[in-house]
Amino acid sequence: MGDSDENKDLTIAKLKVYRKELEHHAQMDRTLTSTACNDLLAYMEKNKGDDFLVTRNGWNPFTDPGGSWWLCK
């Protein structure tokens, strides 16, 4: 699948930036933070050393409660 391959090619630096964006967005407006996003942020908080977090292209975790995420190790 093309999207999956593209996600796996993300660099650790990009993932760190994405993590910071997630955390910043969640702090700025909790009302837009979906359950899936809260789960994702909780996971990241427990696993700060894991920089291999990958999310589905085009998923907005703040507005799409049915969104999904997975890890690529």
3D structure, described in words:
The protein has 73 residues and is mainly α. It has one domain. Helix content is 49%, strand content 8%. It has 3 helices and 2 strands; from the N terminus they run αααββ. The protein has helices spanning 2-8, 12-28, 35-46, and strands at 53-55, 69-71. The mean pLDDT is 59. It comes from Steinernema carpocapsae (Entomopathogenic nematode).
pLDDT below 50 for ≥5 consecutive residues: which ranges?
none
Work out the helicity level. 40-55%
- What structural category arises from helix and sheet content? mainly alpha
The total of beta strands comes to 2
Determine the strand fraction and express it as a percent band: 5-15%
**Cα distance, first to last residue?**
17 Å
Strand order of the largest sheet: 1-2
Mean pLDDT: 59
Judging from the principal axes of the Cα atoms, what is the shape?
globular
Number of domains: 1
Number of helices: 3
N to C succession of SSEs: HHHEE
Q: Largest sheet at a glance? A: 2 strands, antiparallel
Overall radius of gyration: 12 Å
Topology:
Elements: H1 2-8, H2 12-28, H3 35-46, E1 53-55, E2 69-71
Helix pairs in contact: 2-3
What would you say about this model in short?
The chain has 73 residues and is mainly α. The protein has helices spanning 2-8, 12-28, 35-46, and strands at residues 53-55, 69-71. Residues 8-73 form the G protein gamma domain.
